[in-house]
Design a protein that fits this description.
Blueprint: E1 2-10, E2 21-28, E3 36-39, E4 45-48, E5 54-62, E6 70-79, E7 97-102, E8 105-111, E9 114-117, E10 121-124, E11 127-130, H1 137-146
Length: 150
C-alpha cells in the first residue's frame, strides 16, 4: 500500500527568511524488520518553498499497515522548522503538522510533537497514524452474506 505522507513546516519568524532542511524520518508498522528510513533524496515532491512561509515535503511510503491498521512515525529530524516560544520569545512556536493525502486532498492527522536541539535541530515524533480500513475481499464476502444484493 502506498501512502502519501507530508509534514507541513511553518516559518516561526514570519517575514524573516528561513531555510527549512529535512534530515531523516523513520516509518514502521510495529512489526520487526518493517522500519523504513527516508532521507532528503526520498522526498517525492514539495509544496511551498524551503525559504518561504510554509514548506511541505511529501513522501511515498510503501508499507502495509499493522493488524490494527496503523503505521508509526518514530521520528522525523529537521532543521529550522520549529523554535519554541520559551527559548525564542518572538517565535510563533507553531509546530509542523502531519498530513496524509486521501483522494488527492491533504488531510491533517496531527500536530507533530517536537524536541528542540541546539543549532536549530528538531526531532519530531513519535506519532501513530490510524488508517481507514481497507476494502478487502473478506469485506465484500461479509457484505454479500449480510445484505441481499439484487
Amino acid at each position: 500500500m502506498i501512502i502519501e505522507l507530508g509534514i507541513k513546516c511553518y516559518n516561526n519568524f514570519p517575514g524573516i527568511p528561513r531555510y527549512f532542511e529535512f534530515m531523516e524520518m523513520l516509518v514502521s508498522n510495529f512489526s520487526p524488520g518493517s522500519a523504513q528510513y527516508f532521507y532528503d533524496s526520498d522526498i517525492a515532491y514539495e509544496e511551498g518553498s524551503i525559504t518561504g512561509e510554509t514548506w511541505t515535503p511529501w513522501f511515498y511510503v510503501d508499507i502495509e499497515p499493522s493488524i490494527n491498521n496503523q503505521i508509526r512515525i518514530s521520528y522525523a529530524d529537521f532543521k529550522n522548522v520549529w523554535y519554541p516560544k520559551n527559548l525564542f520569545p518572538t517565535s510563533t512556536g507553531k509546530l509542523p503538522e502531519l498530513y496524509i493525502k486521501t483522494l488527492g486532498e491533504a488531510v491533517k492527522i496531527a500536530d507533530m510533537p517536537g524536541q528542540y536541539y541546539d543549532g536549530a535541530g528538531v526531532g519530531l515524533g513519535p506519532v501513530t497514524i490510524n488508517l481507514a480500513p481497507q476494502i478487502t475481499p473478506e469485506f465484500w464476502t461479509g457484505f454479500a452474506n449480510t445484505y441481499e444484493i439484487p
